[in-house]
Amino acid sequence: MAARRSILVRLLAGAVLVSLCSIAATAWLAARSTTVAIQQEQGRALADDSKIYDALLGYAATHAAWPGVGTLIEQLSRETGRQITLTTNDRKLIAGPAKDLASASSVTIDPFAVDPDLGGADRIDPRVVGPFKLNAADQKFLGDVAKRVLNCVRGRTGVGIIQTAPTGRPRIVGASEATISSCDTQGVLDQLTRSERKPYSDLQALINTCLAGQKIQFTVKLQPDLTWSVFDPDVSGPVPPDGVPGERIEACVTQSRRTQLDPYVAPLARLFVNTPSRAEAGFDLSPANQKRIAGVAAAVLLITVIITVAGGFRLVQPLRALTRASRRMTGGDESVRVRVRGRDEIGQLSAAFNELADSRARTEALRRAMVSDIAHELRTPLSNIRGWLEAVEDGVTKPDQAFIQSLSEEAALLQHIIDDLRDLATADAGNLRIHPERVHLPTLLEQVVAAHHSEAGAAEVTLTSAPSPSAPAGADGELELEADPVRLRQVVGNLVVNALRFTPAGGSVRVTGRREGSDVVIDVIDTGTGISPDDLPKVFDRFWRAEQSRNRHTGGSGLGLAIVRSLVEAHHGQVTARSTLGQGSTFTVRLPLGTSD
Questions:
Q1: 554 CB neighbour count, 10 Å cutoff
Q2: What local confidence, expressed as pLDDT, does residue 40 receive?
Q3: What is the Cα 454 distance to its own chain's centre?
Q4: Which of 563, 567, 446, 558 is nearest to 510 (CA)?
Q5: Do 153 and 172 meet the contact criterion of CB atoms below 8 Å apart?
Q6: Closest alpha carbon to 228 in 212, 204, 248
Q7: CA dist., res. 350 & res. 315, Å (int)
Q8: What local confidence, expressed as pLDDT, does residue 507 receive?
Q9: Could you tell me how far CA 15 lies from the centroid of its own chain?
Q10: Rounded to whole angstroms, how far apart are CA atoms 64 and 44?
Q11: For the whole model, what pTM was predicted?
């Protein structure tokens, strides 16, 4: 069970698992990458084959013989890295490297038998144009007409482009036929040119001869785009489609076209395409390769274990040191600290432990000091009360009015200390409640000043309430906020009492209020002895006093400013202090205009 809970064992197990997953992922990725590479290579090979086939098919469609094809084959071989050989149908070499082709596979180059997806329904390559190729003059004439028609179409619809057929005849596409016809009013683009009339007439004669041979009584009229319509010599006008033997007529059209175009295409040929032999650098799962994989996996696991064990010991040692130090601290050793090694997470944990130990030591010292302070604060008035009572019992003094007043003052002091401790305990428990209402700040400040006026007079200190010099004229008189008036008077009163206590005779204490944005700011400014920079961060600590002699004439219980901070925070505000030694101090309370209990 101890081994299962060991960080080192868990770290080692995790590292081994990660290594196994890494090896498996790497193997899968390698296999996947190889598969993708093979697929890409196959796709590239198919694309190259298609390119070679299309280029040679185009050559056959536009040349009557093969003699000049060698240059094209050499160019295709350089571009694709393939060995290309072209032979006649009986496997006599036309171009390309000579080799044993007896058992090699091939594809036929025949412009009259292409795939229907590459040619038309008649399987004739569209690049076979033969005598239908327009001469330069006709091409220029129809090109100019097409441009004028396109400008007209675009002016009406904003769309349209010119497409040029292999014959050189332009055609407008992308717009409706009605729009094109309205722009080509004379139908020039649909009319046969002078150079086209004879081959169209010859083709039509061949078709009609074929139809007559098939004993089909109809005649065919060709259009410039090689579509056709059927006429009956005995009937005027076209024949309805339902009475036309379309398949037989289409067969005659195709046969006639092949007969007419045959002199213009290269003879049927066979194409052989092979990849040059190269050293195989592939990878397979042969026994030898399986042993290599197993060896690499074992090496990776061994290295992982070594690194994990070394790192684990480095990780576990400071953790064990922290465990021992924690147990010593639990046993009461407040001086225990751990060595901080590095700035990594373990080093930060060690530093945090040392900070915790320091904080615990400070808290313990503060607790002891607080117990001592509370005992001292309670002992003084109790000793005075007991002394007065013993004096009465011994007959040294009489219980007159002065005696009763002295006991009342000491009892009031005890009550004040107990109330302060109760307020702090309530704040620590999170149960300090405030009851906010609309408070007129200038009136509240005047009330606090009036309540402490006699105390200021006894100390010969001038105590005043005035608007802040930075406040707009007339703004202070209307300054109101949401706050608990009792608690707010307690806050300002504690600050005033503190200021009066440390301001020498002839000095002054001034209380101001102003608005800053959405906050209300109250300043208590004195011209007292000031606070040293080292002591300034401690002024709101409990039982802390600048005068450590605990003389009641120069220092209170040390709880007043701590209570101020708790009450201000209960109002969702903040209190700060700034001071210059020998010149005075300023305590600033910042509260939101509205608050909630």
A1: 13
A2: 76
A3: 67
A4: 446
A5: yes
A6: 204
A7: 12
A8: 92
A9: 30
A10: 31
A11: 0.44
| β pairing state of 462-465 and 508-516 | parallel
- In the prediction, which pLDDT does 281 show? 43
Quick one: CA dihedral 82, 88, 94, 98, positive or negative? positive
- Please report which confidence band the pLDDT of residue 546 belongs to, taking 50, 70 and 90 as the band edges: low
- Contact present, 114 and 57 (Cβ < 8 Å): yes
Query: The tokens of 439 are what?
Result: 């408070």
Residue 10 reports pLDDT greater than 70? no
Euclidean distance between CA atoms 346 and 316, whole angstroms: 10
Q: Is the pLDDT of residue 152 over 70?
A: yes
Distance CA(558)–CA(542), nearest Å, equals: 6
DSSP 8-state symbol, 238? B
310 vs 364: CA distance, rounded Å: 40
Report the distance separating Cα 272 and Cα 294, nearest Å: 44
Dihedral angle sign, alpha carbons of residues 591, 592, 594, 597: negative
480 membership: H or E segment, kind and range: strand 480-483
The string of pLDDT tens digits covering residues 195-252 is 888 888 888 888 888 888 877 777 777 777 677 777 766 665 566 555 567 778 888 8
Question: Angle at the Cα of 108 (from 107 to 114), degrees rounded to 5?
Answer: 110
Residue 515, pLDDT score: 92
| Three-state DSSP string of 378-404 | HHHHHHHHHHHHHHHHCCCCCCCHHHH
Q: Which two tokens stand for residue 219?
A: 């005649």
376: which 2 tokens?
Answer: 């001292």
* β-bridge partners, 515: 520
Q: Which residue has the tokens 């000043």?
A: 449
Please give the Cα distance from 206 to 254 (Å, whole number): 10
111 burial (CB, 10 Å; 0-12 / 13-18 / 19+) is buried
Backbone angles phi, psi at 503, to 5 degrees: -105, 125
**Category of 187 on φ-ψ map: left (φ > 0), alpha (ψ -120 to 50) or beta:** left
Three-class secondary structure assignment of 137-168: HHHHHHHHHHHHHHHHHHHHHCCCEEEECCCC
| C-beta of residue 273 within 8 angstroms of C-beta of residue 84 | yes
Residue type, 109: I
State the helix-helix crossing angle for 287-330 and 345-393, rounded to 10 degrees.
10
Alpha carbons 377 and 589: distance in angstroms, whole number = 28
Residue 15 · residue 308 · CB < 8 Å: yes
